[in-house]
């Protein structure tokens, strides 16, 4: 069954149950009220009959007669209202009606309910008795109840007491009854009204339950369509939510799920792009030396290279082969560092000495670019790192400084701060745009592709490796750069105990 019908059924069932229960309760209360009203009315009649119509014998203290005129008038009026009464003396004998026909029914029966012993005792105790519908007519001819339900009455039995000063004597009782028929007509009317109300509210309930069900089903369907869209690859979908109920919570969770799906989808795309670039770059880096070697080999094979150039050609081939080997090694190195496969052999050493040596080593290279070094280091600079890797990182950075600046000063400074050695290399070269800075830690990234294959034969792996190495040391490597102004790399190597590596992909 569709959810909308399930919900409608549930709503409808609840509403109808409530209406039916209320309806029955209402009918019961009105019935009781109708009975009580007529009992009250009957009792009032009884009181006035007693007051106006009954004569007592003050000596025998018995009911002896009636004000006939009052009774005749009263009986006639009451009979029109389907109300009948009879009077009993102290011996339970019916003393009124006595005259034939006055209080008789068309069927030849008359109103004279027989009073049970228990009721009579209660009357003697001056208690008024109310009776629910029962047969209270006697047939004159057969002296047996006429058991047509139409002749049932509801009655009130009122005791009669003769009062004279302090004396108070039980002298009989009045029974007064009204046809149930009259009451039933009222009840029928109420029931009819109620039935109409039930019908109307039933239709309203059906409509209401449809609206309610449709509302919540629509909200669920919205989520369903959104799920379909996501399944077919649309991650831009957003489900509105008022943050009010469980369906809203579901919508919020759904939106959260979609945005993380979107993020991971973008990450997958990014990774895929990087992988493709890596393959293309790696192929490119290898193709260049291989083409050179192949060219020379062909020249040799066809004897196209003059004898005096052969030695030089072989040196060229050796260089290219070395470059290939270095490329492969650096790649493997990078992978190993990245996946944490290398063990860092950390020791305490003097960083100042290392920096002096590096500057000395690179001065010749710098001179070729008409650069010069300025080194500001403390007497000693305690460093906690893998010696060879420390050298590798700074060599890469200083070499880049030479590579990307001309006729400038490369300022190398070193200091100690907060349980770490901090080394900064500042050049005044070509610099980088913020966009380029973002990517320099990527493998094979070269800010300016036209600079590929510079005379140093760099392959865009240097900074990627340096970055990984510094991270493995638990340190940081930061870069500030401005195009045509220069670049500043700052590397931090934390001391022992502060060098927990940050594992990051
Ligand atoms: N000091 C610098 N000044 C300007 N650009 C730099 C500097 N250092 C690095 N870069 C940029 O970052 C890129 C990546 O550097 P690196 O990983 O060492 O590769 P490579 O030196 O092989 O080009 C360089 O190609 C260059 O574009
Ligand atoms: Mg480099």
Automatic annotation (TrEMBL):
InterPro entries on file: HAMP_dom, HATPase_C_sf, HATPase_dom, His_kinase_dom, HisK_dim/P_dom, HisK_dim/P_sf, HssS/ArlS-like, Sig_transdc_His_kin-like_C
Known catalytic reactions: ATP + protein L-histidine = ADP + protein N-phospho-L-histidine
Matching Gene3D superfamilies: 1.10.287.130, 6.10.340.10, Histidine kinase-like ATPase, C-terminal domain (3.30.565.10)
Gene Ontology terms, MF aspect: ATP binding
Keywords: ATP-binding, Cell membrane, Kinase, Membrane, Nucleotide-binding, Phosphoprotein, Transferase, Transmembrane, Transmembrane helix, Two-component regulatory system
Record CDD domains: HAMP (cd06225), HATPase (cd00075), HisKA (cd00082)
Pfam families (alphabetical): HAMP, HATPase_c, HisKA
Compartment list: Cell membrane
UniProt-listed Enzyme Commission number(s): 2.7.13.3
Matching SUPFAM superfamilies: ATPase domain of HSP90 chaperone/DNA topoisomerase II/histidine kinase, HAMP domain-like, Homodimeric domain of signal transducing histidine kinase
Keyword Repeat applies: no
Domain HAMP: 214-266
Transmembrane domains' residue ranges: 9-27, 194-213
Residues annotated as domain Histidine kinase: 281-497
Record's bilayer topology term: Multi-pass membrane protein
Nucleotide-binding found in the keyword field: yes
Protein name per the record: histidine kinase
Organism: Lactiplantibacillus nangangensis
């Amino acid at each position: 069954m569709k959810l909308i019908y399930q919900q409608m059924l549930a709503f409808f069932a609840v509403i109808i149950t409530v209406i039916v229960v209320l309806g029955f309760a209402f009918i019961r209360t009105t019935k009781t009220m109708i009975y009580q009203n007529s009992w009250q009315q009957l009792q009032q009649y009884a009181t006035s009959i007693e007051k106006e119509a009954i004569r007592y014998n003050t000596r025998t203290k018995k009911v002896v007669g009636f004000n006939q005129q009052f009774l005749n008038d009263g009986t006639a009026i009451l009979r029109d209202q389907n109300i009948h009464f009879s009077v009993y003396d102290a011996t339970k004998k019916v003393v009124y009606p006595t005259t034939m026909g006055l209080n008789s029914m068309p069927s030849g029966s008359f109103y004279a309910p027989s009073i049970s012993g228990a009721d009579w005792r209660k009357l003697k105790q001056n208690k008024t008795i109310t009776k629910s519908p029962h047969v209270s007519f006697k047939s004159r001819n057969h002296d047996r109840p006429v058991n047509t339900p139409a002749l049932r009455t509801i009655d009130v039995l009122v005791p009669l007491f003769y009062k004279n000063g302090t004396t108070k004597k039980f002298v009989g009782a009045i029974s007064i009854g009204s046809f149930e028929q009259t009451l039933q007509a009222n009840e029928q009317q109420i029931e009819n009204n109620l039935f109409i109300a039930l019908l109307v509210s039933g239709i309203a309930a059906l409509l209401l339950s449809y609206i309610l069900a449709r509302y919540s089903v629509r909200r669920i369907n919205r989520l369903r369509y959104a799920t379909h869209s996501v399944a077919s690859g649309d991650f831009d979908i957003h489900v509105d939510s008022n943050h009010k109920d469980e369906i809203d919570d579901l919508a919020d969770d759904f939106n959260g799920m979609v945005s993380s799906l979107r993020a991971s989808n973008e990450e997958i795309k990014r990774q895929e792009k990087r992988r493709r670039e890596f393959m293309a770059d790696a192929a490119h880096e290898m193709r260049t030396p291989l083409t050179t070697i192949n060219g020379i080999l062909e020249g040799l094979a066809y004897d196209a290279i003059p004898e005096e150039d052969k030695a030089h050609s072989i040196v060229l081939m050796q260089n290219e082969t070395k470059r290939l080997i270095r490329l492969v090694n650096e790649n493997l190195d990078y992978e190993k560092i990245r996946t944490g496969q290398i063990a860092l052999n950390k020791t305490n050493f003097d960083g100042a000495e290392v920096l002096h040596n590096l500057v000395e080593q690179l001065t010749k290279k710098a001179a070729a670019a008409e650069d010069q070094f300025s080194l500001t280091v403390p007497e000693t600079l305690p460093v906690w790192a893998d010696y060879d890797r420390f050298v590798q990182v700074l060599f890469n950075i200083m070499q880049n400084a030479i590579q990307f600046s001309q006729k400038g000063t490369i300022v190398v400074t070193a200091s100690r701060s907060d349980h770490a050695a901090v080394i900064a290399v500042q050049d005044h070269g070509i610099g980088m745009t913020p966009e380029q800075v973002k990517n320099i830690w990527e493998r094979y990234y070269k800010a300016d592709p036209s600079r590929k294959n510079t005379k140093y034969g760099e392959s865009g792996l240097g900074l990627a490796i340096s970055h990984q190495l510094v991270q493995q040391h638990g340190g940081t490597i930061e870069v500030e750069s401005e195009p045509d102004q220069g670049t500043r790399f700052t590397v931090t190597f934390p001391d022992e105990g502060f060098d927990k590596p940050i594992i990051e992909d």
